Amino acid sequence: RASALGAAALACVGVVTAHGAGLFNLAVLGGPVVMAAMAPGLERLWRRGGARRGALLGAAAVGLLLVAAGAWAMRSSLASVLSYPRPGGNLPETIWAVLTDHPLLATFTPWYLGNAMMTVLALLGAVSAWRTPGLRRWCTATGLSVVLILLAAGPHWPPRILAGPWYTQRARIMPLVTIGLLVLATLGIAEAQRRWGSGNEEPTGSRAAAPSPRRRFAVAALSRNVPVCLLIASLVLAPAWRWSLKTEILQAIHDPERIAYGTMLSDDELALIRRAPSTLPEGAVVLGNPSNGSAYLWSVAGVRVVYPSRPEPPGGDLLWLGRHLDEIGTNPRVCGILAQRGARYYYTDDTVADGATGGGREPLWGQALDRLPRQYLEAVDRTPDGAVTLWRITACD
To answer: How much is the CA Rg of the chain, to the nearest whole Å?
Structure first.
C-alpha cells in the first residue's frame, strides 16, 4: 500500500506541475475517491472524541488556512481566470454532445450518434456502481464533471463561476467527463458479463424443439464472451456512426470555408496580397483591421501596415484610431494620425465573422477599423468575388 500511495503522490505532483488546472482536475476526479477512502478512518477518530477530535478539527483548520493562503498568493491569476469573458452556451446541444461523444469545438450535425455505445455502457456501469458502495465514488466524480460542463454551457448566473478554473470553456472540462465515462463503461462491461454472460443454460423442451448445434454453439460463445462481443460491436459501430461527424470535424479544422473560428485569408485574398507591391506605390502604408487579413500584407508581401499584429495596442494614437476611424469625415484628428503614419490606403474584408461555423476571423478589438465610410474611399484592387478590397483613402486629400 505504501508503494501505491507513493506512486499516486508522484503522479499527482506531475499532473499539477504539467499545468495548474491539473489541481482542479484532481479535485473533481480524485476528490470523491480520496474522501470515500478516508471517511471510515476519520469517522472512527471523530467518534473517539477528546484529543483525536480536536486533532481532526485542527488539521481541518490548517488545511483551510493553507488553501486560503494559496488562493491569496495566486489571487491575480485566479481573478483573471475566473473573470474570463465567455458567452453563454447551449444546454441541449451540450447534453447531446456529452451523450453522443460530439466534440465541443463547434456546432456539428446533431443526429450523428458518435460513440453512443460507450454512453450506454457507462449508464449501465453507473447503475451497477451506485449499488456498490466502493464504486459509488466514480459516479460522484463523473456527475461533478457533468455538472461543471453544464454550468459552463449555461446562462450567466452566479454558480457558473465554479467552471472558472477551466476558463468557463466546455471543451476544457470535457476530458474529465470522458475519463469518468471510460471508468463507468468498464464497469458496465463487467455488469453486462454478469447479467448476460452465463453461457451455461441448456436448451429446454423436447429434442425436436431444441435449437441446432450450430446455434447452440453460437449462443454459448456469445454469452461466454460478452466483453469481446461488445468490443467488436464498438469497433464496427463507432467508426460507422462517427464517419460523417469526423468529416465535419476535419472540415472545421482544415477547410478554409468551414474553419470553426474563422479564417483570416482565402486563396483569392492571398493572391491580392501577393500582387499588392505592384499594385500600390513604393513606400505605401496600409490601414486595416489586423484580424481581417491586412496584417499579412507586411509578412507576406513586405507592404507596410499600421497594425502588423492582432492584439490591441498598449495606448496612444493607434489605440484611439482603432476606436474612432469611422469619424474620418468629422474629426480632423483621424486624418492627422493617418498623415503622421503615412497611411493612405485601406484594406477591407466583407466576409462575415461569426466565430462559430467558418467565415472570417472575429476582431479582438477596434471594431471601428471596419467601419470607414465607403464615400471616402476609391477602389484600387479587389478579389474576384468582391469580398476583399484595397482602397485609396480620399477623405484626407
So the answer is: 30
